[in-house]
Amino acid sequence: MTTLLLTLLLALAPALPRTLVPNPVPAVRPLPPPLSVARWWDPPPTPYAAGHRGVDLAAPVGARVRAVGPGRVHYAGQVAGRGVLSLTLPGGRRTTYEPVRPLVAEGEEVAAGQEVAVLTAGSHCPGPCLHWGLLTGENTYLDPLTLLPRPMPRLLPTAWPS
């Protein structure tokens, strides 16, 4: 029964939507592995309500931040006293990173995996973290983790052979 259930889940998994991201392009991680999520995406019920419009990834100050995909620098500068970087990806979606010291300039083309910023102090997390966001259109926020390739499930034996 367990084998049948696992087989069914694995067969249906590619058909299950993770979120409404048009034309998803597999991306590279914004930080070196392993990614440690300090706070998950928690979309607000309405555009102006409270929520968490991205994910917080625990990382030390000074960590190198990479572009998750190819694109163009939309914005690189300060917002409310924090360094912010925003990259426009193919299809018009944008990823945002903060608090960072950008290593690239507005309008510059970037490659997937290219180091584009350095994590700085001043995050809204209890410890240092990178706030990573994903937008489509002007203000529709999506879960940025949906950009990353899905992990491949692995079944482990319940007992080791003697």
Largest sheet: 8 strands, antiparallel
Q: Tell me which oligomeric state these chains represent.
A: single chain
Mean pLDDT: 83
Uncertain runs: 1-24
- For the record, give the distance between the C-alpha atoms at the N and C termini, rounded to a whole number: 26 Å
Structural class: mainly beta
Shape, per Cα inertia axes? globular
In which range does the helix fraction lie?
under 10%
The sequence of SSEs as H and E is HEEEEEEEEEEE
Number of helices: 1
Radius of gyration: 18 Å
Q: How much strand?
A: 25-35%
Total DSSP E strands: 11
Chain-wise SSE layout:
Elements: H1 2-12, E1 37-39, E2 55-58, E3 64-66, E4 71-79, E5 82-88, E6 94-98, E7 100-102, E8 109-110, E9 115-119, E10 129-136, E11 140-142
Antiparallel strand pairs: 1-2, 2-10, 3-9, 4-5, 4-8, 5-6, 6-10, 7-9, 10-11
